[in-house]
Amino acid sequence: MTPSQAVEGLWLTGPDVSFVAPSASWQTFCAQPLPCFAPVICDFVAALSARLQQEGRRHPDLAAFGFWLRPRQLAREQQRLQGRGPVGVVFHLVPSNVPTVAFYSWLMALLMGNPCVVRLSSRRDPVQEAMLAILNDLFSQPLLREIAMRTRFIRYDHDENITAWLSTRCRLRIIWGGDETIRQVRAVPLSPSAHEVVFPDRRSMAVLDSHWLARLDAVGWQQTLGALQQDCTRFNQQACASPTTLCWLGEPDEGLRRRLLEALFVPFADDPALVMERLIHSQQNAALDGGVQLSLFPGVTLLTPTASLRLAHVGGGTVAEFVADTLDELLLQPWDMQTCVWVGAHKALLEDALPNAPACRIDRVVVAGQALAFEWHWDGIDMLHVCSRGLVQHE
Question: d(Cα 243, Cα 240) in Å, to the nearest integer?
Answer without folding.
Answer: 8
